[in-house]
């Protein structure tokens, strides 16, 4: 279930009054990376709704059954709660010289029966946001066309988010907790805090015990270490931890022991 979120507000005397408004139903992540697919915070597609400005209920009447809307990148400092169409247009971020279009992919979506989707695989931002006033962007969505219906619909504006260079994504750390049970003469319970550094090209941000070992930093998918592990029947994170705990990993490759020490902190064995 999406969170019922809408950045748009109606009211005030300085801006224009609109009977309808576009709204973001779900939010973007607070930080995204250049050329990464634009998705909602939960990894799904971003959803836009057409709502009645007064009741905040979705509008799906026949006259609004099918429209098109354009997606824009806005300056993150644009915080007006009662903006005009001209103010919206004035806050559209222009691409830096030599950088090309700021949005790559499908920038026009259909609004059908009051709902539009920004497909999670169809749109990317090509440049970082650090050059703006407060180092953030917002997304804006505006109905296309100059007819009376389009003129009476306020634009949607997302919450601000940062866009960082994709080359820095692999520096992000994810902390995960695991418990492993296995028999080795006596029952051992392995409890540890894991610091996994994930390659920027992989989708999973929280590797599980059954994930392949090449998801760990310094173990390439087609590299020699991965090949040696595979030859010894070590294919996933769980098997790698077992071998390391029992000391057998050293017999495969001493370098692997150093990799484990760098990736896994506060390792300890508790015996029952």
Automatic annotation (TrEMBL):
TM helices/strands, residue ranges: none
Cited Pfam families: Calmod_bind_M (PF20451), Calmodulin_bind (PF07887)
GO annotation, cellular component aspect: nucleus
GO molecular function: calmodulin binding; DNA-binding transcription factor activity; sequence-specific DNA binding
Residue ranges annotated for the Calmodulin binding protein-like N-terminal domain, each copy included: 20-166
InterPro entries from the UniProt entry: Calmod_bind_M, Calmodulin_bind_N, CBP60
UniProt record, GO biological process: regulation of salicylic acid biosynthetic process
Residue runs in coiled coils: none
Domain Calmodulin binding protein central: 208-246
Protein name, per record: Uncharacterized protein
Source organism of this protein record: Vigna mungo (Black gram)
């Amino acid at each position: 279930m999406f969170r019922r979120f809408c950045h748009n507000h109606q009211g005030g005397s300085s801006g224009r009054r609109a009977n309808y408004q576009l709204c973001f139903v779900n939010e973007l992540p607070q930080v995204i990376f250049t050329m990464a697919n634009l998705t909602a915070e939960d990894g799904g597609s971003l959803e836009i709704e057409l709502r009645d400005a007064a009741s905040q209920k979705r509008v799906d009447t026949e006259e609004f059954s099918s429209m098109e809307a354009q997606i824009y990148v806005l300056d993150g400092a644009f915080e007006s709660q009662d903006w005009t169409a001209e103010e919206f247009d004035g806050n559209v971020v222009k691409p830096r010289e030599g950088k090309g279009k700021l949005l790559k992919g499908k920038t026009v979506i259909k609004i059908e029966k009051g709902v539009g989707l920004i497909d999670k695989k169809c749109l990317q931002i090509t440049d970082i946001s650090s050059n703006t006033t407060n180092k953030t962007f917002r997304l804006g969505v505006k109905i296309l066309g100059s007819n009376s219906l389009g003129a009476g619909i306020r634009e949607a504006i997302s919450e601000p988010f940062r866009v960082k260079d994709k080359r820095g994504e692999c520096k992000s750390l994810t902390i995960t907790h695991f418990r492993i049970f296995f028999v080795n003469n006596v029952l051992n319970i392995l409890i540890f805090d894991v610091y996994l550094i994930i390659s920027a090209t992989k989708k999973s941000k929280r590797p599980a015990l059954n994930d392949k070992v090449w998801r760990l930093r310094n173990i390439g998918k087609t590299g020699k270490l991965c090949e040696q592990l595979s030859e010894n029947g070590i294919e996933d994170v769980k098997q790698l931890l077992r071998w390391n705990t029992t000391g057998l990993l050293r017999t495969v490759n001493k370098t692997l022991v150093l990799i484990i020490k760098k990736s896994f902190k506060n390792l300890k064995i508790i015996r029952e």
